[in-house]
Amino acid sequence: MLSMLLTLSLLACGDKDSNKINNDDGGVDSGDTGVPVDEECAEIDHDPIENAQLIGVPIDIQATVTDASGVFLVELYYKQETTTTWKHLTMVDQGGGNYVTQIPAADVGSGGMDYYLRAVDAAQNDCTLPTDGEDDAWHFRVTAS
Q1: What is the domain range of residue 71?
Q2: Model pTM?
């Protein structure tokens, strides 16, 4: 019951009109409760790393994440290209939809790295960028100089 109250509280936050999601026929899908239903993922905007990065130097990651119902969580998932284990960091909300984090220097080793972003909105819609997350993660090289 507490989780249901929390979900309703999260849905109630923000501008009432901004929580409305248009369905295919142009109407508003409010479900059986009369509360607007958000079935859309948060919009994630990020410029992927294209250049080689230096071994042992932290890497700044920035993204803009917005959603009509509000953003609940933004995370960075990353790993060395030679491993199968993904590490993750919660990105910090800098205001205005801007989120930042940094891959620690100790995790930036030789070869290359893969990464993707995950966002969860206030309605618990869970999405990644790239869309297929770890199956289509971005890749960048890591070099000594």
Answers
A1: 40-143
A2: 0.75
